[in-house]
Structures are given as structure tokens and as C-alpha cells.
Amino acid sequence: MCRYAGWRPLGARLVLLALALLMFYGLGWVLANPSQMATPTDDPAIDKGDVALYRAIVGRMAAGEDYYAAVAQEQHGWGYPTRPFLTWRLPTLAWVIDRMGETLAVNLLRGLALVTILAWMLAMKDTGLGRYAMIAGGLLVYFNLVIVVPPSKVVYLHEVWAGTLMALSLALHRRWWIWSLVCGLAALAVRELALPFVLAMAFWAMREGRWAEVAAWGLGILAFALGLVLHASQVMDLIRPDALRGPGWLALGGWPFLLKANQWSLLTVGLGGLLSAFWVPLALLGAAARLDPLGHRLMLIVWGYSLAFLVVGRSDNGYWGLIYGPLVAVSLVFTPMAVRELWRAARKSLGDRYNPPPSF
């Protein structure tokens, strides 16, 4: 079931060398740029930026104001770009918090996080890796869902909600694909950054011939597209002539930005960001390890977002990593198996006859 089983020695050695070089480069960059790896509690997007902005927006909504009118006033007043329309977040999360109130919304997020942790423990059990893998999977997801900022702030972060729902969606897929679909589309309704996740789930459903699931994901994507058009039409009427235009998101941040995007864990924060230098390459290795439906999806999602973050995302967008952080973390469960198989293959002589892995 491991992708790396039976690899040729040269290929295994090259992967292990690349792994070591990425760790070395990442560690050197973190040590040379400690200020770039500030803890999430120091991130202005958490304390004084996005959280405060959307708390003010929800406050206006509670007073009876329309969401789009509230965003137009607050976002412009805070000096945020309001052009293009994608700088305006989808209204879903603001509506939920407005209807429920902050306290109930916080408790709902906590409940979703707890269910996600339990779902991943069950998913780890289903992989057949045993009790320790089940516990490790639950803990790794826990460390990425329990963000080290007060819940009253986290509840306003769209990426936290979307990331939790995405993690829950993948964990539920093997047993309950309909609930997996519901969670995945709910994540997309909160944050459009969840679209690659939904596309990955639909792609593998198609590859596996799960046509009812493909149709369901397709309808969900179509509904999202229509909702985005309606969202854009609402926004375009409210953009002022003097509106600020946001800088482009194609920033080519490379590996350093990817490390910044993956520091949102109790473990990485506790070690001042140094762990990210090892965390990210090892997780990428583990995400690609399994040749089963969970492994196929995990690899496409984790590698897809990681490759995108090499080129997309400004320096102040590091919190985008929250959207797939739990899936990066849980990939580490499969890293020992990956390293073991690669090491076994690398130790062979280059002249040994290649024995392909058994098919399943």
C-alpha cells in the first residue's frame, strides 16, 4: 500500500537527498529570518486586522444593517482594498455569527473541531495502521485545530472554519461520503479557497467511477459558481470610485512562504517556527505515501495547495495555511512508513534487479 515500496535505488536516494536539502534550506532560512516566523498571536491579520474588521461588520449586522453595506463601510474605512470583488469575503460566515451570536458560534466551531478529531481517529483506524497511528492522527489534527489564540478571535477567521470542515470532509469520506460532501461544500460556502479541495474530491470520485458522488460534487460546484456571480453583482454596485485596488496575489513567495503558511500549530509555535523546516517536507513525503482512496486524495490536496502557495500568496497571507493545515499535519502519520520504504530501497545496489511493488 506504500507508494515508495520497491522503488529503484537511484530514485529513492534522490528523494531522500531532496528531503534533506529542503530541511537544511528551511532551517537556514528560519534561523536567518526569525522575525518572518512570528507566532500566530503576533500576526496582524489575527489581532488588529481581519478579526477586528469582521467583528465590526457583524456588529453592524446585529444593529440591522445589510452585510454588503456593512462591508462597504468598514472595509473602506479601515483602508482595505475593495477592488476587485474577490477582496470581499463571502457572506456565509458573517451571517452564521450574526444569527447565532458569537458565543454559540464559538461553541459550534469547538464542536466541529472535536468531531473532526474523532473522525480522524476513526479514519486512522480504518487504514489498518494500529492504535498508535490512530492516536497520533487525532493528536496531530488537534494541534492544528486548537489554534493558540482566544476562540473569540478564531471564530471570525474564515480559514479556520473552512479548514476544519475540509479536514472533517476527508475523514468522513470512506464511511459516509454524503456527509463528506456536505462538509466540503460548506467549507466552499465559507471560503472560496476551499475550491481546490472540492475539485480534488470530485476528481478522485470520477477516477474511481463513483458517478453519483461526481454528480453531487458537480452540482455543488455549479451552485457555488452561481453564488459567486450573485456575490460579485452585489459587490460591484458598492465599489466606490476611489476604492483601493488590492495588490496581486501572484507573489512567488516560494519555500519561505510555504513555511510561514504551515506554522499554525501548537507544536510549531511552541518551537518558534523551527519545526516548520522539518514539518513541511516530511508531511509532503507522508501525504504521497499511501496508494488507497484516502492517500490519493490526501496527496492531491496537500501537494496541490503546497505547490500553489509557492507562487500565490503575499507575505501577509500566511494565515491561508490554516485552510489545509490539519491535512498537512495528519500526513505525518504516514511519514515513518514512507521513510522506511525509501531507506530500504536506497540501500539496495544500483545493479539489483528491480522488483515492482504488488498491485492492489
Provide a concise account of the structure shown.
The chain has 360 residues and is mostly helical. It has helices spanning 9-32, 44-47, 50-62, 67-77, 92-100, 102-126, 131-145, 151-154, 158-172, 177-190, 195-207, 211-236, 254-261, 266-270, 276-287, 293-309, 325-331, 335-346.
Structural Rg: 21 Å
- Spans where pLDDT lies below 50 across 5 or more residues: none
- Kindly state the percentage of residues in helix: 55-70%
The overall number of domains is 1
- Most strands sheet: none
| Secondary structural class | mainly alpha
Strand content: under 5%
Query: How far is the N terminus from the C terminus?
Result: 8 Å
Describe the model.
The chain is mainly α. The chain has one domain. The protein is globular and about 70 Å long. The protein starts with 8 loop residues before the first helix and ends in a 14-residue tail after the last helix. 42% of the residues are buried. The model has no long low-confidence stretch (mean pLDDT 87).
Topology:
Elements: H1 9-32, H2 44-47, H3 50-62, H4 67-77, H5 92-100, H6 102-126, H7 131-145, H8 151-154, H9 158-172, H10 177-190, H11 195-207, H12 211-236, H13 254-261, H14 266-270, H15 276-287, H16 293-309, H17 325-331, H18 335-346
